[in-house]
Design goal:
Chain lengths: 574, 98
């Protein structure tokens, strides 16, 4: 054969993987499917340990229920009889050479040839090849692993549960190439520790269960600001907190519900699926089975003193995203990063207190001097050269703002009525009702942020502006700064100005002032109402409530720490 | 927020008292008990799928029967209901404070 007789084909040099060694885990074949759908999805799930169930994944699991019961032993390749017709269900096979492990729903064997069958929820899609590439690739992985084990395997099938249709998948060169590429690609990103970019304006994202974690449109927008983000991350079910503060209450579990009782008498139930967190204040008792079930469902419990002071929280096994925490610690040791983050947080906080003052001003004294002063300080914060200087600026702004806070409080028309008066901010212990409300509101906000941060995988105790001291959730204190005025202070003003909490709702003892039971309940309700309020996001343009906004902000902060965003986009209102 | 959750009326006929109790207990976790074997639920697509999967795992398909009636988007729907004897209120979602 001479040179010009050769077929004009560029031959692939198959790059053999090194055999898996050490503690490198095998890649599940399902991940190859995810990679083919979107490389970032595979990275989030496999490397960062993120997971979120969606309607699709729940239906998918349901579709698998019949094949998930493993059958008896399936014969090895050399024991397969030529004529025998056999079925094997839920069989797990692995290959060290490919670095893969696959769970096969169903294998059929006939005449010495095996056919893997994968169960899919829903109906057969009407596309050229009878199925989408991710599913075809996943099946091809199964074939490759089967062949590794010596079986003869030429085609497979997808079975669509809802329409009861079977779609044949032939393992041709093209599909094998596609599969090999996906395997290589996934192993590469898994080893490389670099997250693939989000898809750009892709319809796949609206069907992706991790869209609220990935934030594809938000990240793309903040990186090159062209397409306006679709409100993909906002649509999700909304579980809400359960607060228990009644004296001697007991929280237990009954079936799918939490049952709260006082002196063995049931006073309230809450469906567990609707519970986002349990907030316990003071002398309240949770039974162990109930606590364990809450941990299993990843519903955190936060513990507070009767006065609302945040003592700590209990979570399940914790978040798996080590990469994120590592990035957080690394950044926190870098003085420049700390200063950059802190400057923006302080500026956003001052801007938001300025907005709050402007909106709620009730006095004849002109507001402009305060607004100008705060604007100056906000700009100055951005130019601070070190943390002590920044602390000084923040302190100065707080002093001016709280000096004027009394002007935001409605006074009764009738001067004989008891009124709320505010002179200066004081804390531990607060000595007047307004300070007591502010302290309580900040404790609620600290708790909200602490839970929010640990739920997305950050460590709430390691901060950038606030220095970590024993028991202080420094990162929660950092990120809540801009929200102090717009959530906490604004709730305080609202309950006072609407008369929801009255001066008679307080008890004072030994120089400290506290809310009584009824007042506290109404205050918590007002706080939660504020958290449910919808606002238009100033950057993304879509509507979102504060509860969800907090999570998006926390995730964006994570994206910033991991180097995906050049800056953390602080939230300010106008 | 877009109409994400729908309102459902779910009724069931379960032959065996043991299975009936299991269904009843499960249903209490997903909705509000209206009357014997009738529940009112607000479900997202995901919870709807969960509930169906769980119910499907409990019932015997040739003896029992469950009906799941979709009334429409939970936030906006105003079901026209005649309720004699007791009040009928559409389930709302709000934080529990005790
Ligand atoms: S949301 Fe879109 S970009 Fe993000 S993982 Fe899912 S499919 Fe990929």
């Amino acid at each position: 054969m001479t040179d010009n007789e050769r077929p004009p084909v560029q031959l692939e040099l198959p790059l053999p993987f090194p055999e898996l060694s050490g503690d490198m885990p095998l890649l599940p074949a399902r991940m190859i499917n995810e990679y083919q759908y979107c490389p970032r999805l595979a990275y989030l799930e496999w490397v960062q340990g993120e997971w979120a169930a969606s309607a699709d994944t729940v239906e998918g699991d349901h579709a698998h229920r019949r094949v998930d019961k493993p059958s008896k032993r399936f014969p090895e390749a050399d024991e397969l009889d030529d004529t025998e017709k056999l079925h094997g269900r839920s069989i797990t096979l692995s290959s060290n050479r490919l670095g893969l492990i696959a769970k096969l729903d169903l294998i059929e064997a006939e005449d010495g040839i095996v056919t893997p069958i994968d169960y899919k929820r829903g109906k057969r899609p009407h596309v050229a090849r009878g199925a989408y590439d991710p599913e075809r690739v996943q099946l091809c992985v199964q074939a490759m692993v089967l062949r590794e084990h010596g079986y003869v395997c030429e085609e497979g099938a997808l079975y669509f549960v809802q329409s009861r249709e079977r779609v044949r998948v032939v393992f041709d060169d093209e599909l094998e190439q596609l599969t090999q590429n996906a395997i290589n690609g996934l192993r590469l990103i898994a080893a490389g520790g670099h997250i693939p970019d989000p898809l750009l304006d892709s319809p796949k994202c609206s069907g992706c269960s991790l869209v609220g974690i990935c934030l594809p449109d938000e990240v793309n927008y903040l990186r090159h600001a062209d397409l306006e983000p679709r409100p993909l991350a906002v649509m999700r079910d909304e579980a809400l907190p359960v607060y228990v503060q009644a004296y001697k209450a007991k929280i237990g579990k009954k079936g799918e519900e939490l049952e709260i009782s006082i002196d063995d008498e049931k006073v309230q139930t809450a469906r567990l699926v609707d519970v986002s967190q349990v907030v316990v204040m003071g002398n309240v008792y949770i039974t162990t089975p109930c606590l364990q079930d809450l941990m299993k469902r990843e519903i955190p419990v936060s513990w507070h003193s009767y006065g609302g002071w945040f003592v700590g929280h209990t979570v399940g096994t914790g978040h798996k995203n080590v990469e994120l925490r590592t990035a957080q610690y690394k950044a926190s040791f870098d003085d420049k990063t700390c200063l950059a983050i802190a400057r923006n947080l302080v500026r956003a906080k001052i801007q938001n207190s300025r907005t709050l003052a402007r909106r709620n001003w009730r006095s004849d004294v002109p507001v402009e001097p305060l607004l100008d002063a705060l604007k100056n300080l906000a700009d100055k914060a951005l130019r601070a050269t070190d943390l002590p200087q920044l602390l000084g600026i923040e302190g100065g702004a707080a002093a001016q703002y709280f000096a004027a806070f009394d002007q935001l409080i409605k006074k009764p028309d009738d001067s004989k009525q008891l009124s709320f008066d505010f002179n200066t901010r004081n804390r531990r212990p607060p000595t007047d009702p307004v300070n007591a409300l502010l302290s309580f509101a900040y404790a609620m906000l600290t708790r909200t942020w602490t839970m929010n941060l640990s739920a997305v995988g950050l460590d709430p105790y390691r901060g950038f502006y606030h220095q970590p001291r024993y028991g202080r959730p420094a990162l929660a204190l950092d990120l809540m700064e801009p929200f102090r005025p717009i959530i906490a202070d604004s709730t305080v003003l609202q309950v006072i100005n609407n008369g929801e909490v009255r001066p008679t709702d307080f008890v004072s003892a030994a120089g400290s002032v506290n809310l009584n039971d009824g007042g506290r309940k109404r205050f918590i309700a007002a706080f939660e109402r504020r958290m449910s309020q919808e606002i238009t996001h100033p950057l993304f343009g879509y509507k979102v409530d504060y509860r969800r906004l907090f999570e998006i902000q926390a995730r964006l902060f994570g994206r910033y720490l991991l180097g995906e965003l050049p800056e953390y986009p602080n939230f300010t209102t106008r | 927020m877009a109409a994400y959750e729908h309102l459902y009326i779910i009724t069931y006929d379960i032959r065996d008292p043991k299975r009936w109790r299991r269904v009843f207990r499960l249903m209490k976790g997903y909705g509000e008990w209206l009357q014997l074997s009738v529940f009112q639920c607000r479900l997202s697509r995901k919870r709807h799928a969960e509930l169906i999967a769980l119910l499907d795992g409990i019932i015997h398909h040739n003896e029992d029967h469950i009906l799941i009636v979709n009334i429409g988007p939970a936030e906006t729907v105003k079901p026209s209901v005649v309720s004699l004897g007791k009040d009928f209120e559409v389930v709302a979602r709000q934080p529990v404070i005790v």
